[in-house]
Amino acid sequence: MQILQSQSVLAALLTGASASNSTCKTTPLDVNWPSDEQWQALNVSIGGTLIKTSPVASSCYPGNPFNSTTSCELATSSWTLSQFHAALPESIDYPFYANNSCLPPGASGFAEQKGCSIGGFPEYIVNATSEEQVSIALAWASEHNLRIVVKGTGHDMNGRSSGAYALSIWTHNFQGIEFDSSWPIPGSNTTADVVIAGSGNNWLRIYTAAENAGKLVVGGGAPTVGLGGHIQGGGHGPTSSHYGLAADQILQVRIITTNGTIYVANSQQNQDLLWAIRGGGAGQYGVVTKYVLKTHPAPTSAVLGTLTLFANGTDNSSIAAAWDAFAVNVAGIPDLMDAGLAGQMTVLSGSSSGGTLRAVHDLYGYNMTAETMSSIVAPLIAKINAEGAKANGSITLSFPTPREFSNFTTFFSALNPESATGASGALSMMSSRLLGREQLNNVPHEQLVGYLQRALESQSDGRGIMIFGMQGGKGPASVPEDMRGALHSSWRTAYLHAITLGAYIDAEAAPQTALASAAEWMNAKRETLWQEWAPEMGSYMNEANPYNLNFKKNYYGSSYEGLVGIKKLYDPTESLFVLTGVGSDGWDYNLNTGKLCRTE
What we know:
The chain is α+β, with helices and mostly antiparallel strands and 600 residues long. Helices cover 30% and strands 20% of the residues.
């Protein structure tokens, strides 16, 4: 444990700071908002790394009110690209959660009359290059009763990396990558094969470096996702079904809490922080700057296959046959995973699939051949065909010869082709649930069909979308007890991570209003479904409903009360707030006003 700044420096910086027991976090409308001189003093103390927020699309508005240095043309053409937002200090992938404060023309939710404002973006950003800068900024903000948010890449789907009137800590400069095949495990005479990685990295950088070192690191499924929040929320990906989640790989972290203290957390010191960081939620306990993660042998080959199922017509017989076949497919996934396969299935129904049903099931195999994968999938194909034969000619099922790759990175590139269009800037709200054999194999066929049909219902346009991630199974179930942290315990029995969309979000309405309406539908429809289908299972908090009324049980489970104590200990000023975070029910964040106030 180490405190970097001296008491005299802190005392000078905190002169005039307000008490931190206010019912609301301080805003520029309050008399105790830091003066320009105080902000300047902070900037000097952190080496000139403080940035006053300048929304990138300001250049699209008359007079460029915030002096954006990016042209409107570039902002507009790049708006759907995650890498564009990741490279900007203030920008996030889903600006609805920043109150659509300054959108370029053509973006979802754009309204010229709304103009450009800081709005839901943080007021200032620390473009940190050192832990000392983060430490000083966190202590300063906490003492001034400011909200603090943390941004790595801004990929977060639930707005956790932005917040009105906040001071943001931008971690993108922490990009060190070092592999150590004999890292000493604290408290033991043994070593581990690890990567020591800065939290500002994205997974593409890590995967590329790992391939060059002959290693495999358990990480995310999209190249632009950053390590920070992804890992702290659990972190699933294309290899988690083999080795456990990213959070299960943590051997040590360096984390800076809101009073400015720098901690090293491992199995021998600050174990409570280590436990919380291992799946207890992102942006809640401090700013992680560095991870020490277990590595694994790089696969010598990878295989990608695609099983496609769809109804041949829109008549009732064809559609009913497709639903029956689809349910057989879903129920067969645990056996595929036990045989060594991973993957993801995307399902479209209603108007999104031409009025019928279409399921595209990508399957991943490591250290195997295309022939081996085909032999694993063959029994399931036979079962699906047998179901489809009950209504002859009603469904089409295809499984072309799988493609083989010589290493993991070429396989990963095939999953994420450069030609793919970005999803940033979209409007969506999701709900999710972890599903095990109990939910997939121990329910009657007709009941499973009914659950799937309800999960694919849509609020307004008949466009049902569901995604099944094969990210549980033997990997999470086999993680040693001493490597398990606050991650929801249902990951240890789950096979599938199921995501559903379907809520209508009115792009023309105020985000606060639109999100509240969508959340009401999600809670009434999706969360009720999960409670009926999988009442004792949890959800993957990084891809879930940010307004889930039962978030404590669904996202944290039995870990929640322990995390409350850790949150109080390391963030006593409650400076770090995120939707559905630990203790978040004690606060109300209003996008219309930007205020974050206690509810009690």
